[in-house]
Amino acid sequence: MDEIELQYHIKKMWGAVKSNGIFLLNVPYSLESAIEEMPVNKWEIIEGKYSLTDKRIVNENVKREHCVIIDPSSDQIDEWFEEQRYFYGNEILDLLKRCGVKEAIGLIDIDGKVAANGENAKFFIARKNQT
Fold it and tell me: How far, in whole angstroms, is CA 110 from its chain's centroid?
């Protein structure tokens, strides 16, 4: 999704939260965690098929993934590309605020450990005020 479409969906989800309800957004991959894991360039054998995966961060916040899967039993080669926009945790907090989600906090884990300024947050939570 581009950022406009993402904002549209967040606003719809926030609008569906009842008064005094809790909004929880799980973001398993932030730019902080992606940078730690990238780049990846590896060959693997998965279920008898050869897989080459190349992942890297480009343009400062876009993960680009290229994967080639070769099935020697059928002479078939599949190839796909993916680009995904990644956000820093503080960018997600800002995005939520722009979508009307006030006082959201970033959590490092589901047990409630708060992420300073959203850094390395995997969960974002907010309670909708009573109207």
Answer: 16
Q: 56 and 86 in contact (C-beta within 8 Å)?
A: no
Question: What pTM was estimated for this model as a whole?
Answer: 0.70
The side-by-side arrangement of strands in the sheet containing 22-26 is: 22-26, 123-127, 105-107
Rounded CA separation 65/51 (Å): 13
| Separation between Cα atoms, residue 92 and residue 112, nearest integer Å | 17
pLDDT tens-digit profile of 75-117? Answer: 889 999 998 888 888 888 999 999 999 889 999 888 889 988 8
Q: Give kind and range of the element (H or E) at residue 91.
A: helix 89-98
Domain spans in the chain, listed from the N-terminal domain onward: 1-30+87-131, 34-85
Chain mean position to CA 123: 11
